Amino acid sequence: MNLLTLQKRMAGALMLPLAAGDHIDPAAPVDYIKPNDRLTSLERLEIYSRSYWYRLFDSLYEDFPGLRAVLGQRAFARLAKAYLTDRPSASWTMRNLGSRLEEWLRRNPTFAGDRLDLALDMIRLEWAHTEAFDAAEKKVLGPEDLLELGPGMRIGLQPYVRLIELRYPVDDLRVKVNAASEEHGTASNAVLKRKAGGLVRRIHSMPPEHIFLAVHRLDFTVFYRRLDAEEFHLLAALGKGLPVGKAMEGALEDSPAPVDELRRRVETWFAAWAEMGWLCSQF
Amino acid sequence: MPANRFNGFTEYGIGVGLRIPHYQHILEKKPVVGWFEIISENYMVDGGRPLAMLDRILEQYRVVQHGVSMYFGSAERLNRDHLRRLKALVKRTKTPWLTDHLCWGSVDGRYTHDLLPMPYTFEAAKLTARKVREARSYLEVPIAVENVSSYAEFHESEMTEWEFLNEVVERADCGILLDVNNIYVSSRNHSFDPYDYLNGVPAERVAQIHIAGHSKFRKYILDTHDHPVIDPVWKLYEHAIRRVGQTATLLEWDDRIPSFDEVHAEARKAEKFMAAPTPLHAAQTPVAP
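Predict the joint structure of the above. Result:
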């Protein structure tokens, strides 16, 4: 058996979903592995298979605490197992493990039960969070750089600013999940149970709310900032590389606000973006 | 072998693995540490906190890069994106040498994120050595490959693990990151004498040594890096130092990480062995414990 064949067989075997009791699938091919005086070939492969599944599951578990809260631990575990089976890691870094989760869940909606939209929104938020955490930072355009702002000027949006349009206020939920997780180390079991129950009830009764969100980074911490619809569209257009004039035209043309009011708001937005360092050169 | 071409002719002494829970302590207390080993992949990102922290560490400490995803032994080609990012990091850290594992971990574009054992065949040695050469040529830094802990052996193997290691490093003309804990773990899992392994390694190619703790289960030992180093591993380390001379040594502690001071104190236990006499390239083999 050549090296490639052996590696294909072993990878295929250890990536088979674990069976009951976290045992390796007894049908996994193991004829290439030697047994020893303590372990069968299958038991030796099982060490690797468990390690593979635990490692990848832990990574998803850490990256998607909000999705866990939305689905519950058992449903999350079922989803993770199915996702990792269908979409094994295709990147050298586990950081990218969740990059295809939204696409996969859209094709496999039953794994979200009756909370598909909520789950999809949370996935988009949590993936944006991952991206914002370690995306590049370009040279910031400060207020002085914007003095000569004209309609033909093109400005860029920092790569660590991610814009997402959501149907549910999952930003609030994610912040609450985070806070609950931080309290976990100090609160008593009774308090934790009561708080967890409150969170579950909140998720069950969460009404839809159309929100526009910027997931961004400040001093190495990821924050969520809600935006006006026009502000969101303007930022998105600038991020796509449109000149300022065209970006404003497209973003503001349907706005019911009076022109003076819009002018005031645009000035406020640009000042805030410059202050937060969101604007950068396109190159 | 205090300094050689495989570690950039450096004499780095005892180092500690840089881990996130210790960032604050290191930056505030500025402990005296010979060097830090970083997991390259943790810093192969475009920006944010990981690189900012690394830059602050680099202002005060020497850093050596240790990778976990090169997969020299995978039958497929080296990942160009990985290499490109690794090279950018090499430029940033100015690591005098760079290490990764003698293992495989990906096939058909699917990644296991594990350090899987090699079949010890001439075909595998040839391919692995070619990839080490390619990586070194692109990265322009000396490379040393690390022996991994393993829990499985293959029918296809044509030689022992240390013979395979020799075959690869001679063909690649690269260095060795000798992990004495991994030798111990594998020797128990595969019933060989760890001193045969140590004595079979070309001393002149050892660029660095790893020490670590592990976990013992009923039927096998698992390389968990979550305990202090046990005495039999220290004895192996002592023997390794006698064979290869004072060599940059790093303690790995990756899970259930205690305070920085505790990790550092454990690493510094290596000092008494580092003060050992002249290398014995043809050292006698002690009786295995």
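Strands of chain A lie at 33-34, 156-157, 162-166, 211-218, 221-227, 279-280.
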